[in-house]
Amino acid sequence: MALTRDFKETVVARVRRDPAFAKALLDEAATLFLNGEPHAARLVLRELVNATVGFEKLATLTGIPSKSLHRMLAVNGNPNMDNVAAIFDAIRQRLKVDLRARSVVAA
Question: pTM, whole model, 2 decimals?
């Protein structure tokens, strides 16, 4: 069965009409990153950047060239911690949310 709408378009549309969904994506990216899944976190962040600030605006906000941001958030990207923090901060500010980490004891 063929998809009738491109995945990226679907994410962008949902983020724009549902701020809670955008916040949930940011939360998911942070959770993935903190749980040792940086590959998945980068891909979620990439979709969130495309749906919110865009790479050109993110470049302005972070002081990191747009091409570098694209590479960092690609499948084989390898951003350093300062760049990851700058990306999270820019998106966090755009969505007007705070990020707080808390530990949860696994059962």
Answer: 0.83
